[in-house]
Amino acid sequence: MAFGLTGCSASNDLVENDPFEKINRRVHSFNLVLDRSILRPAALTYVSVVDQDIQNVVSNVSDNLSTPGHVANNILQGDLESAVKNSLKFVINSTIGLGGVAKPAEQFGINGKGGDFGQTLHAWGVPEGPFIVIPAFGPSTGRDAVGILGDLSLDPVGPLMSEQARVFSFGIRAADVLGKRGNYSTSLDSILYGSADSYEQMKLIYLQARRFELDGTQEDDYFDPYEEIFNEN
Amino acid sequence: MGALGAYFALGQTGHAMTAVQAETLVTKVVSDINKVIASGKSDAAMIKDFEKIFETYSDVDTMARYALGRDGKKATGAEIKQFTKVFKQYVAKKYGSRFREFIGGKIEVKSSREVKKFFEVKTNAVIKNQGNFEVIFLVSDRSGRPLFFNVFVEGLNLLLTERSEIGAILDRNKGDIGSLIRDLEKSV
């Protein structure tokens, strides 16, 4: 098993917090089957059949539906400026922008920071927790998994919606997922199907991307290959 | 820093590298990349161009050695040489084939500073319909001249990602470097 560790010796602490690797890998395999048999083919069909303009509309409306959740998280993070801007954005895009079909608010420069509950927990000092793979969803962390549940219960608009509006909202978001899977298929396919160990690559890329989203690039991420090579010799 | 700073920086002979030199290097890299993106060439031609950029401005030897990880310690000189050659082609193909997505885009140097024992040069890539991306180059002259040895695209660390991938191919081949080289040769 000595060779089994070569991949992990790669790095700093980035990939170390994975106590559930065994079960994560099984869930990952299951998710790959789902992707190959359902999500990927549906997404490729979606992006080839649906006109680009309509895809953009779907993506815009989906973004608009997420805005009230951003406002809730802006407030929880004490970012009142973004909360005000995002509230205005939601009102403008929902009315003048016809439910988010267009994005006039952004054109006026009215746009606050996005926010999710995982990010709010981060702002409150909750640590990242272990890496986990959620069935039918994908890579996450302990903190982000709690964040997903938080966002579901935080949604300020959801409870006010009629049954029809809720179905519509779900449909738009589902279509947006198809669009994203389809439009990023080159990158995603190369990670999921083009790498020697897709689990390891997905974990590495997910964690790096999420940490960048939360904190930007940190000096701590800069390791010195010269030091290692010279020390090893 | 202006022209005066660059003048003094160039006046120093080799040993004490400056942020200006790092920035000069990355400005050249970025200008070459912008030319490739604007050329509208075929994928294969872009990959060739990218390999050339990689070869000219980066410390491929160090990057390849780092990507090999601990198994690099037991590699022979000949194996390291062969691996370095195919690693260069592999990186050029993997990342060069993505350049198509950047057509119509542009990269600009933003800032540079000394970090630890090397230099960080931040650039901003503006891609049509996709907005801004932060691309960071890490530069050192410990190879003998200023060359970049790592790239971060929106937080994604190229060297770390490739070390993990090379490690996984090695695992698949029970740590055998000859088999790793053959696998990579097949992929480029």
SS summary, helix count of chain A: 10
Helix content range of the residues of chain A, please? Answer: 55-70%
What is the CATH topology assignment of chain B?
A: Nuclear Transport Factor 2, Chain: A
Number of helices of chain B: 7
Please identify the top-level CATH class of chain B. Alpha Beta
The termini of chain B sit apart by: 41 Å
Strands in their spatial order, largest beta sheet of chain A: 1-2
- Strand residues, percent of chain A: under 5%
Domain tally of chain B: 1
| Major β-sheet annotation of chain B | 5 strands, antiparallel
Tell me the structural class of chain B.
alpha+beta
Kindly state the number of beta strands of chain B: 5
Question: How many DSSP E strands of chain A?
Answer: 2
- 3D shape of chain A: globular
In whole angstroms, how far apart are the ends of chain A?
25 Å
Spans of chain B with pLDDT under 50 lasting ≥5 residues? 9-14
Helix content of chain B: 40-55%
Q: CATH superfamily name of chain B?
A: Tgt2/MlaC
Bulk shape of chain B: globular
Average pLDDT figure of chain B: 88
Q: Give me the CATH architecture of chain B, please.
A: Roll
